Amino acid sequence: MTRPEHIELLSSWMRSYKPEELFGEKGKLHQEIAELAPQGNRCMGSNPHANGGLLLKDLKMPDFRQYAVDIAKPGTTFAEATRIMGYFVRDLMKVNLDSRNFRLMGPDETVSNRLDPVLEASDRIWVIERRPEDEYLSTDGRVMEILSENSCQGWLEGYLLTRRHGLFSCYEAFIHIVDSMFNQDAKWLDMTRGIPWRRPIAYLNYLLTSHVWRQDQNGFTHQDPGFIDVVLNKKASVVRVYLPPDAKTLLSVTDHCLRSRHYINVIISGKQPLNHFSIVRRRTGNPVLAR
Asked: How much is the pLDDT for 282?
């Protein structure tokens, strides 16, 4: 206010944008400029691709019961729960290949987590040079691996927001890397529940293995159950935590979570061989749920 030369500098800067080319004498935007703005569903806030729930379609789901471990006598059958789950996810991926609406994401742990049956349905996506010794790589793979939990979380969030489905597999101890990203997504899901035009999107599913209760290697670095604490700090209207004790229960939980909407589901399951017993389901038919 006391330095006229500064006003001249400000005026010169603002006039450098050539406002006379955009606005009329009364400050109204020229009509031909206004018509450049998107109309209808092309507006950013109305574009259905930014409101994935409008375009979301259910996955085609195999019957998870067909993958159950055959237990002739309780306590005599050993199975790796996540490998059994892998067969189910493999066939789910197969029947949804044409729809191109499901991806498996994670660090470099698809095989380590016993989910390698999915590689029978789809390769890992890979868009740069390949070597003769490489396997299960292609430019149109549905399995996305990168040694960055943050990237995997971001990929999956974007994939769900654009009306599709996915699963994020990770070791329990390392999922802490995305704590803040999880918090952000949980807050967003909570807030959007009260916005009527924002349609529910698919679940955000975590499968956490190498958990604290059953760690047969790398015990000093792979034992941190703290992510469950982060999750259970959120409202029950947004998060669910599942602790399936064996392959049969994991199949039921996986089927349930892949059908859910607008939740963050955390499944914590062992991957090592486990002695299986017959499972008596509750009268409600619902899998065990921890809140």
From this structure: 40
